[in-house]
Specification:
Arc Repressor Mutant, subunit A, 22 helices, six-stranded mixed β-sheet, alpha+beta, globular, five-stranded antiparallel β-sheet
Length: 517
Amino acid sequence: MSLCFEDIAIDVERRELTRAGEAVHVEPQVFDLLVYLVRNRDRVVSKDDLIDAVWGGRIVSESTLTSRINAARRAVGDSGEAQRLIRTIARKGFRFVGEVQGAMAPEGAVAAPEEAAAPLPRPDKPAIAVLPFNNMSDDPQQEYFSDGISEDIITALSKLRWFFVIARNSSFTYKNRAVHLKQVADELGVCYVVEGSVRKEGNRVRITAQLVNADTGAHLWAERYDRDLADVFAVQDEITQAIVAAIEPHLLAAEDFRARAKAPESFDAWDLTMRAMSHYWRITRTDNVVAQALLEKAVAIDPGYGHAQALLSCTHMAAAHLGWSEVGAVIDAADRAAAAALRADSEDPWAQHAVGHVRLFQHRFDDSLAAFETAVRLNPSFSVAQAYHGLVLTYAGRWQDGAEAARRAFRLSPRDPFSALYHGILSYALYCGSDYEEAMRHAREAARQRGDFTGGLRVALAAAGMLGREDVARETLAELRRAQPNISLAWLKANMPIRQEDEMAHYIEGFRRAGLR
């Protein structure tokens, strides 16, 4: 749903701001700050509120905060002198004073149905979505904790072959939204929905969960758990098994399982990893750095926690792939972390995903494909691994298979805030197939969703070059240089893991025609 005022529209889910119908580039922190001010327009927001909400409580200088406020004002056509929309309240903080015509549905309200798109077809096995559990704690900064509980339940259910489980990122688009479950069922193509809440107080946690038939509204199962934090992983197991039992009781006899193959020794390591996850998904240089710092702390506490090691490896490789770090500077650290994840639990899909990413940049294509195939086998609903599998297939010269894998990722996670990645991978596969128009369309969509996503911008530039669209190429090259200042033909040749020489030459030719040197 959008936040609309004057000629401004903010699409919170897609993280986009438009003014008079034209897209306005907004830095991630500025976007978060602006959304927070608009959502809390009924009160004065203190500087501490903003620091907690946007920077997670980290120490932020007065000049940094002031610059972000000024940037937010510029984005919406305001200024420090006029303060028409964002007003400074002396010695108190800030308040958004514009009149909002459209906003997120208030808590407890049922969102009005959108113009109905055709419901997604149901798969041929039980389909389920786990909505993000509500944070019922007094501290809004505990959101990551309730998100982590939800994510672990999704992971556990995804390991069961008889379920079609919607990926985390699509389920999480319903966070803080009151929507009818029938709408969720139609938009995601599922018949079952899990929802619940988490309240964390001191060393105790209360988790409630319920399973609902989204078509009929019938409650199939509900339970409340009061536990010490040390028992939180056991609670996740209990919830997952209860869900399975409620849907298909006889299936439990066929296979027993644990929700987490290997829980961390320290709850603090899990806590830090869940915080890191919330940054990793945002695909910005700053968030990637923050995620790495949190994960380094997690593995220092518990070196045997495979999920943290795998995600740490992925942050290193993402930085290399997007041009934020040099491959040679991060590949060894990424390889060590991936190996540690594999030692901790070779059946963890994230560990295999991390290994696949590292092997790709070591130009060990067959090993990379094998790792991603294993990750998808272990968790068929792992949409990110499905998409990366498509990327490696394309880099290895199998662009048709790569495009098919990217499309599978879209189906697994049809409303995914991470879909910029899927659009980018599909665009590259289409470019390799010389479908430059479609490649550009998907590449521009990737860049529209995530302005700093260099992968989408690269394909958009190469496709514009092959199509001879000089104006588009000139504009896109400027965008790409902003997001990746070190981009050059030499960088592409040295860093893109493309197996076949003719495919590398085809890719480079698009950039050359677009004016990159």
